[in-house]
Amino acid sequence: MAEPFPLAPSLWATTAPPGPETPPLTESGQADVVIVGGGFCGLSTALHLAERGIRPVVLEAREVGFGGSGRNGGQVIPGLKYDPADLVAKFGRERGERLARFAGSTADTVFDLITRHDMDVPHRRAGWIQGAHTETGLAEVARRAEQWAGLGAPTRVLDKAETDRLLGTERYLGGWLDGRGGAVQPLSYARGLARAALKAGAVIHGASPVTGLSRNGSTWTVTTAQGARLSTERVVLCTNGYTGALWPGLAQTVIAANSFQVATKPLSDNLRRSILPEGQVSSDTRKLLLYFRLDHTGRLLMGGRGPFREPRTPRDWAHLERIVGKLFPQLDGTAFDHRWCGRVAITRDYLPHLHEPAPGLLIDIGCQGRGVGLQSTMGRAIADYITTGDTDRLPLPLTPVAPLPLHVFHRLYVSAIIAWYRLSDGGIR
């Protein structure tokens, strides 16, 4: 895997408070559980384990939140790519309904954790709007709103006039509003989770890339690049879009696409009031969706797909800057002061995957762009499973690690689609 784009150019690195001290692992030792990856899932797992009296050690290759957790758009969106009825059809009534309840609760988890641990995290919970750009999309959002409303969620369908008013653009035919959604400063949130986990008794080591996993009987040995080793009965891998070769075939189970983002300079009060005036966040019904929001500094963020390779020049973000002017003509000519990207792990069925390829080794992978709430809640479920041994505590069944057949060709196919997307400015004329 190529050297990842640095975290520092992101808006979040500029505006987040400093993270806690997480020194590298320099001495070998033991842990109740070793967690590889210091993103939302790893940190949430550590926090919830520590609160249950279990001593976890988190090993992060860089710094907490370095991967997708500290780079995403900060949109807290409940649910999955599948609607509740689709989950029932796919998994059966009992498991499908349980998974729908899990998915519907993910935004609650985030805002509850921020409040309970008094985290220094800019956040707002005004809802999420999904705009529909086609007639097919209109039918899709109406069906989605109805299904979630049937489960008690605060949703409503938006006609074109209300969609135009709430988004500040006339580019959509309508949409729906899910009142459970909201926004966080994602790097601040990752660092807040780390602080809470440390306070609860977890141990976190940054700059400690894991280079080896081996098992002897029931004991795992986890080796870092510095040569320090930890012995443990349980290992949890939470590396998602930054998964390397640590476990055979795991990286080939996902397409690790780059999600690119730009942020404007702080907008004037008049411009700020013309876009998302009630504070919602938004993403649309496109297959390669656009997502946008205002942050706590008054900047507009726009996100979408970019090349698989790491960016080389500002031209790699030019399509997003053009999209801003097309979606929001009032911002045409507005300057941008932050450009960054991060990897998103996409599975073949667009669901998160849980694997247990060997006794004592649990793997979580695949966010599909909803990682803030999904992985925060997944961490709690993983802690429940480790504590009880009850697989029903997990939202999804454990499945084998199954690399995508002809993985390189899947990547080439997706690359071709993304190339069209960039050249056509996401299909916006």
Order the strands across the largest sheet as they lie in space.
Answer: 7-8-6-16-17-18-15-19
Summarize the amount of helix as a percent range. Answer: 25-40%
**Major β-sheet profile:** 8 strands, mixed
Mean pLDDT: 94
What is the alpha-carbon Rg in Å?
A: 21 Å
Shape: globular
Structure notes:
It contains 12 helices and 21 strands. The protein is α/β, with parallel strands linked by helices. Strand 11 and strand 12 form a beta hairpin. Helix 2 packs parallel to helix 8 (186-200). It starts with 10 loop residues before the first helix and ends in a 6-residue tail after the last helix.
Q: In summary, what is this structure?
A:
By secondary structure, the chain is α/β, with parallel strands linked by helices. The chain has twelve helices and 21 strands. The longest helix is centred in the last third of the chain and has 18 residues, at 371-388.
What attributes does this structure have?
8-stranded mixed beta sheet; 429 residues; globular
Provide the fold topology.
Layout: H1 11-15, E1 29-30, E2 33-36, H2 40-51, E3 56-59, E4 75-76, H3 84-91, H4 93-104, H5 106-116, E5 123-124, E6 128-132, H6 135-150, E7 155-158, H7 160-167, E8 174-178, E9 182-184, H8 186-200, E10 203-205, E11 210-216, E12 219-224, E13 229-232, E14 234-237, E15 254-264, H9 269-274, E16 281-284, E17 291-294, E18 300-305, H10 318-327, E19 336-347, E20 353-358, E21 361-365, H11 371-388, H12 407-423
